[in-house]
Amino acid sequence: MTAPILFRDVRIFDGSGRGLFPGEVRVVGNRIDTVAEGDARLDDNGTQVIDGHGMTLMPGLVEGHAHLTWPSSVERVVNTMKLPLEEHLLVTAQNARITLDYGFTSAYSAGSLGERFEVALRDMIDAGFLPGPRLRASALEKGAEGVMGVPEGHDATHDRDIAGLRRYVADMKALGCDTIKFLMSSDEGFAPGGAQILMYSEEESQAIGEAAREHDIWLACHAQAAEAVKRACRAGFRAIYHCTYADEEALDMLEARKHEVFTAPAPGLLYARVHDAQSFGIGEAEAKRMGAVSGLELMAEVYPKMRKRGIRVLPGGDYGFPYNPVGRNARDLQLFVDLLGFSPIEALVAATRHGGELMALEVGEIKRGKLADLLLIAGDPTADVSILQDKARIPLVMKDGGLHRYEVGQRERSFDIIGRGSI
Ligand SMILES: [Zn+2]
Asked: Under a CB-based contact definition with an 8 Å cutoff, are residues 162 and 210 in contact?
């Protein structure tokens, strides 16, 4: 067994919502063994000491709406969503490593472009053969290809009768998926007016929900129209993404299920279409046509209400486009602060503690007994969440007690300056 690791001279953000406090943290095996506060010193006998030089120690981030199979990343632009299977699976594995490099130690999938890609990838990561975040693996994103511009890859290979839907849910459980993603509504990005087009009837939604409960598998959905959100709530969906057009009744239904439901708006894609996609052929008019401008405005109305109602809203989502690449996911925390009315600490809690609840794993908090997924950050993210977008300011990424990235020793001089300079 490797020696316990002791983090010394760190300021701790523990994921609970309280501000930074000085302390020390000891990791034994893959768990957090002790958290000492203030001037208390832990015994360093027999431990590997990591001197944080006053940096922030925080829980690993959770990407609440991940698409590791969407090909583009900060390392490479891929101008298609569909690659030959072999390349696609390998790019997906690369994206998993990039996601972890950037401090996301967990990822909850919101749909895959390969039927067993994420199941196979999750098992390879869990066995320690490939680097990547803890992964809740999804089946394909299901909808109805060709309806209201729904693109290729969202094909309904399941039969669209009740028995076929039930069989599909059972089959995905048998494949080893943790979650299944349905397009409960189409999207403005697929075709103008698409957000209001419902893809599954009440009866179909209920059948999907019942089958999922029977087979013990989670349900996630893309839901733009208010009625899509309501249908997903009534059917017992666990992750309900976007909710852009949620009305008061939809918000009431989400609030009534706030202990079991999670949402993620995924503002990053819309933001990128408005601000970062010109060189990819999406100008102002196109961004408007795709509903990106109105979508951001609606989110800015809906999500502050959700937060006030205590509905768990998670950052992340829809990274993997050339203009919104995997690796840029932490930008969502800044968008939560700038656009959705979250304080920096609220955005951090959403990406850590609430993320851990979404994963249903003992992650997302620095607390005795929790799994040791930890980041060292040069600077104070509770004052400025934008620093999380800079990989150079995340010199250490620990997952499950193991050091995935550890660049403190080589670069501690410069980090020392950044870390202390921003106190
Ligand atoms: Zn998505």
From this structure: no
Beta-carbon contacts of residue 149 (< 8 Å; ≥ 6 apart): 186, 190, 191, 194
Three-state DSSP class for residue 345: helix
User: What tokens were used for 375?
Assistant: 């980041």
Beta bridge pairs of residue 183: 222
Question: How far is ligand 1, taken at its centre, from the CA of residue 419, in Å?
Answer: 35
CB 120 within 8 A of CB 87: no
With contact defined as beta carbons under 8 Å apart, do 407 and 381 qualify? Answer: no
DSSP 351: H
Residue 174's CB is within 10 A of a number of other CB atoms, namely 10
Residues 276-293 have a mean pLDDT of 88
End-to-end CA distance of the chain: 36
pLDDT of residue 355: 98
Is 287 within 8 Å of 281 (Cβ atoms)?
Answer: no
Whether 411 has a pLDDT exceeding 80, the answer reads no
**Cα of 318 to ligand 1 centre, how many Å?**
5
Q: Are strands 312-313 and 104-109 parallel, antiparallel or unpaired?
A: unpaired
Place 195 in a pLDDT band, splitting at 50, 70 and 90.
confident
Q: Does pLDDT of 417 surpass 80?
A: no
Cα 296 to middle of ligand 1, angstroms: 15
Q: Are strands 5-12 and 179-183 parallel, antiparallel or unpaired?
A: unpaired
pLDDT tens-digit map of 295-336: 999 999 999 999 999 999 999 999 999 999 999 999 999 999
Predicted TM-score (pTM) of the model is 0.93
Rounded-to-integer distance, Cα 296 and Cα 423, Å:
33
Strand partners, 240: 221, 263
* Per-residue pLDDT at 415 exceeds 50: no
Q: Looking at residues 196-217, what average pLDDT do you find?
A: 94
Residue type, 133: P
Nearest Cα to 352, choosing from 392, 319, 385? 385
50 vs 40: CA distance, rounded Å: 16
Distance from residue 316's CA to the centre of ligand 1 (Å)? 9
The answer to whether the beta carbons of residues 367 and 333 sit under 8 Å apart is no
Cα 289 → chain centroid: 27
For residue 314, the CA-to-ligand 1 centroid distance in Å is: 13
CA of 333 to the centre of ligand 1 (A): 17
Pairing between β-strand 5-12 and β-strand 56-59 as defined by DSSP bridges: parallel
Q: Which of 195, 186, 194, 143 is nearest to 165 (CA)?
A: 143
CA 396/CA 405 separation, integer angstroms? 5
